[in-house]
């Protein structure tokens, strides 16, 4: 079995259409159908539910989809590494989890001319949950994210880039919108919306621990699977959310407002993470440069 069949399968799942998957790969719908049949015969199970529109993967298909994504990504990385070797370039793959992460990295990287060291940076956004696992498993060379995700990771070390505190976020129709700050009691007397632990991993549980340190059990009325849903609940359902200080998407002061929380334990750090004992010369050189600027 070659990787092209897996690529067709991934494109079919993502487009939900045999026709669209064929157009994406410049082949006929019949070719996509034949390749999917081959995979189903090879794995001896049904991978696609053809009774739905758009078509959807079966439970077995979902497993194959996730594993195929990783395999195709690794293959692309392999090709890129061989190209870099032939061209004498040192490519470093960095995963990040939010707009704040990439902004902090950009600020420190701009202070150096990495071209002199033939260093090329590739960055890719990933879900917060799993960022440490990606680093452990060598899917990326470095990671930049909230420090909570690397808590108790014995084989990962970090360099702090930015410190701050979490702010309460309210919509313009909320009773607290005209306030300049909130007391802890005011905060925890309201229903709260948070991103789900499936999305933000350890950060979710750290927020709960910090609330207990404040002496309260938060009233979490809703968990959201993305920032857009969380903001919608804040704007339209009189709920309070948590966002880092200076978070760009909620710092406009129009539809929502960031409020400092007095005497709160809700704080964070954005860090650059790397594997302990890293021996790649290019990565070690980059870490040396960044430590000198932080």
UniProtKB/TrEMBL annotation:
Supply the alphabetized keyword list.
DNA-binding, Transcription, Transcription regulation
SUPFAM superfamilies for the chain = Periplasmic binding protein-like II (SSF53850), Winged helix' DNA-binding domain (SSF46785)
Q: What Pfam families does UniProt report for this protein, alphabetically? A: HTH_1, LysR_substrate
PROSITE patterns according to UniProt: HTH_LYSR
State the superkingdom.
Bacteria
Q: Which PANTHER family match?
A: HTH-TYPE TRANSCRIPTIONAL REGULATOR YBHD (PTHR30419)
Q: Its family?
A: Belongs to the LysR transcriptional regulatory family.
UniProt-recorded name of the protein: HTH lysR-type domain-containing protein
- Species of origin reads Candidatus Enterococcus ferrettii
């Amino acid at each position: 079995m070659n990787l092209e069949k897996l690529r067709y399968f991934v494109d079919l799942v993502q487009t939900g259409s045999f026709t669209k998957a064929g157009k994406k790969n410049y082949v006929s719908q019949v070719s996509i159908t034949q390749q999917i049949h081959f995979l189903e015969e090879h794995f001896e199970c049904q991978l696609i539910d053809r009774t739905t529109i758009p078509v959807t993967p079966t439970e077995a298909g979902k497993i194959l989809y996730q594993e195929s994504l990783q395999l195709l990504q690794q293959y692309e990385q392999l090709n890129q590494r061989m190209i870099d070797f032939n061209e004498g370039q040192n490519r470093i793959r960095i995963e990040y989890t939010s707009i704040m992460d990439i902004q902090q990295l950009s600020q420190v990287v701009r202070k150096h001319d990495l071209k002199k060291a033939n260093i090329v940076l590739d960055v890719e956004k990933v879900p917060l949950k799993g960022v440490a696992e990606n680093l452990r498993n060598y899917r990326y060379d470095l990671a930049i994210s909230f420090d909570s995700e690397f808590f108790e990771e014995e084989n990962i070390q970090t360099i702090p880039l930015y410190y701050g505190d979490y702010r309460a976020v309210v919509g313009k129709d909320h009773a607290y919108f005209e306030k300049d700050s909130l007391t802890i009691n005011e905060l925890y007397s309201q229903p709260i919306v948070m991103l789900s632990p499936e999305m933000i991993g350890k950060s979710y549980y750290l927020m709960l621990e910090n609330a207990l340190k404040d002496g309260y059990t938060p009233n979490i009325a809703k968990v959201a699977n993305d920032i857009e849903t969380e903001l919608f609940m804040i704007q339209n359902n009189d709920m309070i959310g948590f966002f880092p200080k200076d978070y760009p998407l909620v710092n406009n002061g129009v539809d929502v407002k960031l409020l400092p929380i007095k005497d709160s334990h809700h704080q964070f750090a954005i860090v650059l993470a790397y594997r302990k004992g890293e021996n790649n010369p290019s990565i070690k050189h980059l870490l040396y440069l960044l430590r000198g600027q932080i």
